[in-house]
Structures are given as C-alpha cells and as structure tokens.
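Field log, afternoon session.

UNIT: design team B
ACTIVITY: writing a sequence onto a fixed backbone
BACKBONE:
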C-alpha cells in the first residue's frame, strides 16, 4: 500500500505567469508536490498560457484582443 501524500506538500494547481519573456512560478515547494489529476490538468493549461504570454513578450506582441 502506498504512503498517503504529506498534507503540507499538497499545494493544488500551479499559478505560473509570463513575465519578462519567461515563465515564473512563485514559491514552489522544495519537496515533491502532490495534486489531483484535475489540478495537474489545470497546472498544465496554466503553464501553456504563461508560455504563450512569455513568448509574446519576447517578440514584442501584446495579448490578443478578445
């Protein structure tokens, strides 16, 4: 039987941002992170969005209108 995840490392989905042409994730835990499958999906989507924003900043384009 697998050990239960350490509650102090159960941090939920990541909140990355595109800043100065790079993706920044503030305060990731030092130990392994544990999240649900849904939180992992959301983290992946957020990372892709932040990567797109960072790329736009690098190439001097703003956010698309919409």
């Amino acid at each position: 039987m697998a050990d239960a995840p350490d509650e102090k490392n159960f941090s939920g989905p990541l909140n990355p941002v595109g800043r100065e042409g790079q993706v920044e994730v503030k305060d990731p835990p030092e130990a392994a992170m544990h999240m649900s499958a849904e939180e992992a999906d959301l983290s992946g989507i957020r990372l892709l969005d932040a990567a797109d924003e960072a790329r736009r900043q690098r190439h001097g384009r703003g956010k698309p209108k919409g």
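LOG NOTE: The longest strand covers residues 17-19.
NEXT ACTIVITY: expression trials, pending approval
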